[in-house]
Amino acid sequence: MTLPAEHRQVLIASLPADRLQTSNFEVRMAPIPVPGEGEVLCRTVAITIGAGQRAGLQGSASYAGAPEAGRVMGGTGVAEVVSAGVGALRTGDLVWGQTGWQEYSVMRAKDLTVVDPSVSAADHLGVLGLNGVTAYFGVTEIGRVQSGETFVVSAAAGSVGHVAGQVAKALGARVVGIAGSDEKAAMLVDVLGFDVGLNRKSADFRNDFRAATPNRIDVYFDNTGGELLESALFRMNQYGRVVCCGVASQYDTSTPGPGPRGVPGLLVNNRVRMEGFLVFDFEQRYAEARAQLSAWMSAGRLRALTADYVGLDSAPQAFVDLLAGVTSGTPIVQVGST
Amino acid sequence: MTLPAEHRQVLIASLPADRLQTSNFEVRMAPIPVPGEGEVLCRTVAITIGAGQRAGLQGSASYAGAPEAGRVMGGTGVAEVVSAGVGALRTGDLVWGQTGWQEYSVMRAKDLTVVDPSVSAADHLGVLGLNGVTAYFGVTEIGRVQSGETFVVSAAAGSVGHVAGQVAKALGARVVGIAGSDEKAAMLVDVLGFDVGLNRKSADFRNDFRAATPNRIDVYFDNTGGELLESALFRMNQYGRVVCCGVASQYDTSTPGPGPRGVPGLLVNNRVRMEGFLVFDFEQRYAEARAQLSAWMSAGRLRALTADYVGLDSAPQAFVDLLAGVTSGTPIVQVGST
What we know:
homodimer, alpha/beta, Quinone Oxidoreductase, Chain A, domain 1, Rossmann fold, 2 domains, 7-stranded mixed β-sheet, 6-stranded parallel β-sheet, 11 helices
């Protein structure tokens, strides 16, 4: 295979002052990088984008680190090794890693995971990627949902949420999903098999939410924080668990809201556990999660949703759409052919 | 023993509109009640008061129930059985139960716990009572403090706080207590052996708090909620635990403040667990807690503090003082002789 002389990269042009815009990014051409000792050159096949990456662009502390203007935007992708292999890694292997938003990248061989080429890049980045694995451990290890319990998830049509709800359903819970439109709410029930889908923007949301949780809430899987978290706290059962997974309501703003009322009083009165987690804490068990998720997919009990974009240049728009709640499922930006 | 014809009771005269006042209570004389089937008449020796009882007077939902004007104020006490015994319970037994604020009470025999008459009523109601047992399980089961960790407790001179700090110290933690005056802060170190005592009202509190937690906080035992909880959340270590035990900052007001900023974002980034509990959940294990607390007292590693009041009529003032943070330790109102 012949390499081009240059490749496309998406840079952070400026940190967003308030809501993210596509103008916060710019595309440039750059020379193909050269791998050093222990490194390989990879050609990006597809990337995904997580809402949590917006937090890093606030310039404040976050698990995503602190990107700055002028740097290539970071991100997770699936890529093909195009240089000579290193160790067990061979030319032509399909790998999962931190490619960033660019057509070619140099990565350390030890940071890469070889993935099964018979599974789509979208599945590797979505339901079997960090999003799906996050949902799996959040539901099973943090939420510890039991059969017959009421499970509520926010941003339920999102990349983590749509998997979390289906995992809880597979484990026997009654599943209520909260999304940002009537269409998404209907999709949760009709396409994904949730018991109830709610539109948080509906004028009747408060009543709908109460009606949908007649036995209150045993596990609330929180992807948003903010008002939805507060509403859920007031509906928790005794010994309920709040899985703190993401803070989507706070990412795309320069003025985060106040904390939820009822903290800590409601936690005490109802003996509620509220626990934050990052998927990286379960790194030793990713294979277990992927095996279970794959088994559910094969059995038709888990359906992966993706929001598909074509071409690296569409990545900024995919990110803006994600934060605006325009799309459902895991954003997948197809960068090159497989 | 001859019974008097009447006895004193303290009634709730009115629910407090804002801060509790002694005028929210009134003393009246009432006939000595007559026990029915399975009940005994008891003469109150001493009662204690918990800040959480203020929540019930807000008329809103709380684990303390919802007292109303015209009723005898509820409360925990140690009393002597003065009627004929029931089952294993005998005349003259010293018992622990829900006496309420009155000189005599009728209680169901099965709701009473016989206590050791060689231990003071103050210890039965304080360090070996629900306050001490709350501290014990909060530290060991919810906070799960480990030797060498940094443990911070708010309302540290209070009935639960002063025991919690000493329990954590006995378990090998570095203990920082936060109280409401310089005198209390000094007492925590000088009398109770805490590593650091801080005055939350000091102008330098924020800096003092940071300086006192150079390795950040592993367990924060929260008796207050509000601003202190928020400050602690910003100092938590990864995998830190927040023990939600009480909400003293919110009890004595009609306008509870907003929730703490940083919830849930900080919980996610630092993988923090925040968990509410009520001591009643550990009822099957009270004996275990009391045995350990007694052993530490005998070994000189645990010192019980009390704020002593004499006479039932002083109970309203004791409650007001407790909420105002005037006193240290467990409020004990001596009602009758032992």
